[in-house]
Design brief:
- This protein has 13 helices and 30 strands.
- Helix content is 31%, strand content 34%.
- One of its GO terms (molecular function) is ATP binding.
- It is an enzyme of class 2 (transferase).
Length: 703
């Protein structure tokens, strides 16, 4: 049966041609507007289709002038395809009024200019003339790579295959190289206009030949060819062999016979193989006929499960690790037990001849996990790495420990395209259920994963500790600032208190030391002004006034020294005593011998400390002047470790403990003053020999 493309109405063609001629004469095309005529004439004239086809897009847009003669292989109201001995080319052409429209098989001469086109270079015709009647060229039998790449664009081709899908908009063919689709539209219609939908559908399973002008299915938006899809211009179809009424009446064969199907004459004929289903992964089915494993690709709803005995009808596909029946139909004919597995050794584990067979092997577990309702065992056998898949069940699974040794029984699925492979990861094992796993030796409980988890926990704890320490550090820093501020405030208050205390002390000293003396000086001055007092008495009062004034000057000097911050060290204290003691004792006629260390450090003393030490020392010297009858006093000052030592020794009369009790007020005053500043007081006295007073004062801030 042969279906031909009908001719377009002559009157409609003439009308369209007339309108195009009028348009072409009065209004140049956009390409003619952008390309000056004189520039085109300067280019070389192209006379072969192959010269146009070899132009790059930027070269075709220059443009080049074309004078081409060839046979029309396709035509419609807006274009035609012209083919000469070198090939075909697409031509934009509208038939001028009064001119006949080109028809396939006629020879025409075309003048025009080149253009880039959407997919391949094209010609914009400026003049077209009928030459004579001819015949269509012999079609090209395309290879599979040519169909995928679109290199046959605008060429007359013929394609042979079995119809596996058919409608008025497309037809899908199973060819020697694979499945391809011929599309139909208004410019490239398939020869199905005169057929009903049922007649088109009845073509499924028929062996047919399609002949026409190849046009790639080009996606302008992404700039790519749709592989395995194309159009045919001026398409005709020839029915070579009708479909079998009963697909399972096809020629019966064994699976191993499929490996010999290499002839182009029988490669597209259906064949029937009887086998046992080992594993299903629709649309892929893995089967065996007890001698050879094979695969079937069934895109229909095939209600079969492992263990079913079936008949499979399909078309043999060359290549692959095992024979493949594509576009298959499967029919269940019974059920039987699974075949005994083949024991595999490590040295033959990558042999793809075991594809689609039931095998048994030993392996070491690397990991055990569940993903997408499937349990996945990552295993190693010898030096070969592979995965075993088990359908997951609802009840909980106890995962296998790493390095467990197990024995697996399942269907061997090879991923290699050749028969023997030396690469790893080229096969997988499909198990029916967990009973196909036999544990020979469980691995150690503690695994690397546990180590990673422990390290992760420890790292997390360390990070938390670091964060806690950082937070604690910030808290301590904040509290330190607050404490420093509080201490500073307290020190400020303490300094203020000490200052107030010192002011009160100075005021008290001024009152005690100077107040009474000034009062006495006032009385003496008043007596000297009294005229009733004799001159002799006034001279006595004048001597008393002089002594009082001298005492006031000494007292004022002592007060100023005590509060002067320039004399606030132990060294300054020793220097002042070296001046005060001789002056004080010489007034009483007592010699003063000094024993003061040369290396007394400049350790700071507060005004309160200096004043207390001075008053205690002055009290001791006063006692010597008043009670000892001494001729000489030794004043020794030194620093030992962190203590200031002051020793006052006289050669006076001394005293007994009874005398000490009788004069205890002065001694108690010295003791109280030293205790106020944390010091110690002691006295040694021998009647007739003299006395020695010891002051021990701790010094703060010694490094």
């Amino acid at each position: 049966m042969r279906f031909c493309l009908g001719k377009i109405c002559l009157f409609a063609a003439l009308a369209l041609a007339a309108s195009f001629r009028s348009y072409a004469k009065e209004t140049p095309t956009s390409r003619e507007e952008t390309i000056p005529t004189e520039e085109v004439e300067q280019q070389n004239v192209l006379t072969n289709a192959i010269e146009v086809r070899h132009l790059k897009p930027e070269q075709a847009d220059r443009p080049y002038h074309v004078e081409l003669e060839g046979v029309v292989t396709m035509s419609n109201s807006r274009s035609l395809v012209l083919q000469d001995a070198s090939g075909g080319v697409y031509i934009h052409f509208r038939t001028p009024p009064g001119q006949p429209q080109p028809h396939p098989g006629e020879i025409w001469r075309i003048n025009g200019i080149t253009g880039a086109g959407d997919f391949s270079p094209v010609i914009y015709a400026t003049d077209a003339r009928f030459v004579r009647h001819g015949t269509l060229p012999e079609p090209i039998i395309p290879t599979w790579d040519q169909l995928l790449g679109g290199s046959l664009d605008a060429e007359q081709i013929e394609i042979r295959g079995v119809v596996i899908e058919a409608s008025k908009s497309r037809v899908k063919l199973l060819t020697q190289g694979g499945a391809t689709t011929i599309l139909s539209d208004s410019f490239y219609p398939l020869p199905f206009e005169a057929m009903t939908d049922e007649e088109v559908t009845s073509l499924i399973g028929c062996l047919v030949r399609f002949r026409g002008v190849y046009a790639s299915s080009w996606d302008i938006s992404i700039g790519r060819v749709h592989p395995t899809e194309f159009h045919l211009g001026n398409a005709v179809m020839t029915l070579e062999k009708p479909a079998l009424e009963n697909p399972f009446a096809a020629t019966a064969a064994h699976a191993k016979d499929l490996l010999g199907f290499a002839s182009h004459l029988n490669a597209l004929e259906p064949v029937k193989v009887t086998g046992l289903v080992l594993y299903t992964k629709p649309p892929l089915f893995f089967l065996t006929d007890a001698e050879q494993g094979f695969r079937a690709i069934c895109r229909k709803n095939c209600d079969v499960v492992p263990g079913d005995q079936v008949e499979v009808v399909g078309y043999s596909q060359p290549g692959g690790p095992s024979p493949i029946l594509q576009e298959a139909a499967i029919r269940k004919i019974g059920r039987t037990k699974m075949p005994a597995p083949i024991a595999l050794h490590a040295d033959e584990i990558l042999d793809s001849r075991f594809d689609s067979t039931r095998v048994r092997l030993e392996a070491t577990v690397l990991s055990d996990s569940v993903r997408q309702n499937e349990r996945i065992l990552e295993c190693n056998s010898g030096n070969h790495h592979f995965f075993a898949y088990v359908p997951s069940i609802s009840d909980s699974l106890v995962p296998l420990e790493k390095n467990s040794i197990i024995r697996l029984t399942g269907t061997y699925l090879s991923n290699a395209s050749n028969k023997i492979s030396t690469s790893s990861n080229l096969f997988e094992l499909r198990l029916q259920n967990k009973n196909d796993i036999e544990v020979l030796q469980r691995g150690p409980w503690w695994t690397f994963q546990h180590t990673v988890i422990l390290i992760t926990i420890l790292c997390g704890a360390l990070l938390l500790a670091v964060a806690w320490v950082a937070s604690l550090h910030r808290t301590v820093a904040r509290r330190s600032k607050e404490l420093a501020r509080e201490i500073e405030e307290r020190e400020s208050l303490e300094r203020h208190r000490i200052l107030e205390q010192e002011r009160s002390r100075v005021a008290q000293d001024l009152h005690d030391e100077l107040g009474s003396g000034l009062t006495e000086a006032g009385f003496l001055t008043a007596l000297m002004k009294n005229p009733e007092i004799s001159i002799k008495d006034k001279d006595g009062y004048l001597d008393q006034l002089r002594q009082v004034c001298h005492s006031l000057v000494s007292g004022l000097d002592e007060i100023v020294w005590a509060v002067n911050p320039r004399y606030d060290s132990a060294e300054d204290l020793a220097d002042y005593f070296s001046l005060f003691a001789p002056r004080f004792l010489n007034l009483a006629g007592i010699r003063c011998r000094l024993q003061i260390d040369d290396q007394i450090p400049k350790i700071p003393l507060s005004p309160h400390q200096r004043h207390a030490i001075f008053l205690a020392t002055k009290e001791a010297l006063t006692n010597v002047v008043r009670h000892s009858n001494a001729n000489e006093v030794i004043l020794a000052i030194s620093v030992k470790s962190t203590e200031l030592l002051i020793r006052i020794t006289d050669d006076g009369s001394g005293f007994t403990p009874v005398d000490e009790q009788g004069n205890r007020n002065g001694l108690r005053g010295m003791k109280d003053r030293l205790e106020q500043i944390g010091g110690n007081f002691s006295i040694e006295s021998t009647p007739g020999i003299g006395s020695t007073v010891h002051f021990i004062i701790p010094l703060k801030g010694i490094e």
